[in-house]
Amino acid sequence: MRIAVTGSTGLIGTALVQSVRQEGHSVLRLVRQLPEGADEVRWDPMGGEVDRAGLEGLDAVVHLAGAGVGDHRWTEAYKQRIRDSRVRGTATLARALSSLRTPPRVLVSGSAIGYYGDTGDQPVDEDSPPGAGFLPSVCVEWEAAAAPAQEAGIRTVFARTGLVVAREGGAWGRLFPLFRAGLGGRLGDGRQYWSFISLYDELAALRHLINTEELSGPVNLTAPQPLTNREVTAAMARVLRRPAVFTVPAPAMRLALGEFAEDVLGSQRVLPKRLLASGFGFTHAGIDDALRAALR
Question: What is the pLDDT of residue 255?
Fold first, then answer.
């Protein structure tokens, strides 16, 4: 199988490229700089340009590119960058794929559980409506931007990914060093739900989306049982064998993180209904197993 990947230098993209290559598949990386090898094709997601000739003959595309949500303080300029990198990048790719003589059979387009907004303790799944606020509005536009690919008959799946448990990056990339140093603790009151997924299961789920013909539209990539931040904190302390007595008060988080703090303190109890119904089996369904897998 010949698979193209955008965002191949990010946490998930790097691991996905390695994973599918180990399975014997050919990987084509879409890059913004001049290609340095036969496995690279140039694209300009913001400028709307793609080397279409290099995309001919693909079986699948996994689109993961986008500015990091937690990488910078949310100024108005950075919020625009978050939105544009997703919406304009997806539109650029979808238009290019729709114009190919032989389009790929599937586009797995990245999305996020931010689609649902703050759900409190209410469970939500793929049938639930979008929430209110900045991230839900971005996710709605992000997914809508793939319309040209859908209209061209390309099976399009939106991978609404949760919090990926990994040592190398994301939320846990910041948490592990703190907990190892004995400085870990709950965030705010700790009652907010965290919908997590191990990096191993994230990669397996993406491959499952590529190969499962009956799947299209939104699919939540989260473990079956979301936990509260308080429960996650206890698991971190248990697995790392470190105390977790510190608490980061909500006002301090708002001072440090600005508007992004509301999403960190927000609660998302997201269930992977469609993933489970399609026969996917989690290797790390529980938080302890997901943490131990990340540490290995």
Answer: 67
Residue 35's alpha-carbon distances to 17, 32, 42, 51, in angstroms, are: 17, 8, 6, 11
Residues near 2 by Cβ (< 8 Å), separated by ≥ 6?
A: 25, 26, 28, 57, 58, 59, 60
DSSP letter for each residue of 213-250: TT--EEEEES-SS-EEHHHHHHHHHHHHT----EEE-H
Q: For 155-171, what is each residue's pLDDT tens digit?
A: 999 999 999 999 988 88
Distance, CA of 126 to CA of 111 (rounded, Å)? 12
State how far the alpha carbon of 3 is from the alpha carbons of 15, 128, 149, in Å: 14, 31, 16
Which stretches of the chain drop beneath a pLDDT of 50?
Answer: none
Q: What is the DSSP letter of 129?
A: P
Reduced DSSP (H G I as helix, E B as strand, rest coil) percent helix, strand, coil of the chain, to 5? 40, 20, 40
Domains and CATH numbers, the chain: 2-163+198-222+270-282 (3.40.50.720)
Q: Among residues 41, 44, 47, 11, which one has the least CA distance to residue 26?
A: 41
Calpha distance 103→55 (Å, rounded): 8
Rounded CA-CA distance 247/237 in Å is 13
